[in-house]
Amino acid sequence: MSIQLPICPKCGYDQSGEIATWESQCPLEGRCPECGVVLSWGVLFEPMIHDLGWYAEHARSVGQMAKRTASTVWMLLIPSRYWDRVGLGSRVRTGRLIAWLIFFFLGIHLLTSAMEMVYEIEDYRSIGASGLPVGVQDWVGFIADGLCWPINAPDWQRIDYFTGSSAFQSIYGWNPRYELMYPLDLGVTGLVRSLALLGSVGIWVIILLATRQTRKRDGIRMIHVFRVLMISAFASALLFELGRVMESAIQIAYVQRWSIRDRLRYGLSPMVFQAASIGLLVWIQWFWITAIRSQWPVPSSRVLSILGTLASLLASVSIYILVVSTR
Question: Quick one: pLDDT at residue 248?
Fold first, then answer.
């Protein structure tokens, strides 16, 4: 088993000088002379021994990633629980983390795409076609629609494609309040809100980059910031996929003329989608605050948490209003 470079997991300071002061034996714990964090020398020398058996980032194969996905998601649901388990001593495996997030997102996207394809096929049959489509061109179109919708809509590149989709627009005229409360196309709205959530994530990174002296003084390594960035960005993209699958379900209900179709469109779906939007926004703030205050115990953690939360919320709301209000 290879011996790892003895660096502080928090600030990255080389501990070779500290190790050179040992005379006869290795102590169990020490303290980083640069940032002051308490070190476990066993974790420092052999971090693989302390890899987490439930964590997908520490998986050694794609099969292990798949098996550990449920337990990883379960831990991530409560950020404080996740960070309690993933301490400073846990290895940050950026390549494995990115691979897991990509595989996980692709799996979810394929499932939501299948739902959209079901709607496309049912709509095809509702206009008089009998059975399933048989032409290669038809199937290519259904697959493309499922994978790309709503990006493949004819006018998606126009900024006003994302505006005025309120369910009450035809009655009351366009109003941002109705757009916020009663989005008509959850796929489009999910895309816009995911972008707003990504903006809130980006603000956290910008603040940490802007406070370079504070970050350097408190020993916050960018590799840890990258881990939080990737996970919270992934969570933001989930709202887009939720909007896609809910909109597909609503469209199927209308094509099949289910009796609950209006309740799905104007009652249950907006309520669930609004709750998910607010829940993800709150989760992102919780995730970053917990990371700063427990994972990186720094003197300025309270100031960074307050500043980051306020700026993040302002950024997400501003981005969303800017997009839906542009005419």
Answer: 86
* Rounded CA separation 208/219 (Å): 12
- pLDDT tens digits for 6-35? 666 656 666 565 655 565 666 556 666 666
Strand, helix or coil for residue 248: helix
- Between vectors from CA 101 to CA 99 and to CA 104, what angle results, nearest 5°? 105
Whether pTM exceeds 0.85: no
Residue 262 burial (CB count, 10 A): 12
Same domain, residue pair 33 and 164: no
The amino acid at 326: T
Q: What is the pLDDT of residue 173?
A: 41
Q: How many domains does the chain have?
A: 2
Provide the pLDDT for residue 82: 93
Domain that holds residue 20: 1-50
Q: Which stretch of DSSP H or E encloses residue 29?
A: strand 29-31
For residue 181, give the nearest of 278, 257, 256 by alpha carbon: 278
Q: Assess contact for 90 and 48: CB atoms under 8 A.
A: no
Q: SS3 for 33-90, per residue?
A: CCCCCEEEHHHHHCHHHHCCCCCHHHCCCHHHHHHHHHHHHHHHCCHHHHHHHCCCCC
188/42 same-domain check: no
Point out the domain boundary residue: 50, 65, 82.
50
- Measured in degrees and rounded to the nearest 5, phi and psi for residue 183 equal -65, 135
pLDDT in tens, 218-227: 556 777 888 8
Please spell the DSSP secondary structure of 164-215, one letter per residue: --BTTHHHH---HHHHHHSBS-HHHHHHHHHHHHHHHHHHHHHHHHHTHHHH
84 φ, ψ to 5°? Answer: -65, -35
Are 312 and 204 a contacting pair, CB within 8 Å? yes
Q: Please tell me the predicted confidence (pLDDT) of residue 42.
A: 58
Low-confidence stretches of the chain (pLDDT beneath 50): 1-3, 154-178, 327
- Closest of 17, 205, 8, 33 to residue 88, by C-alpha: 8
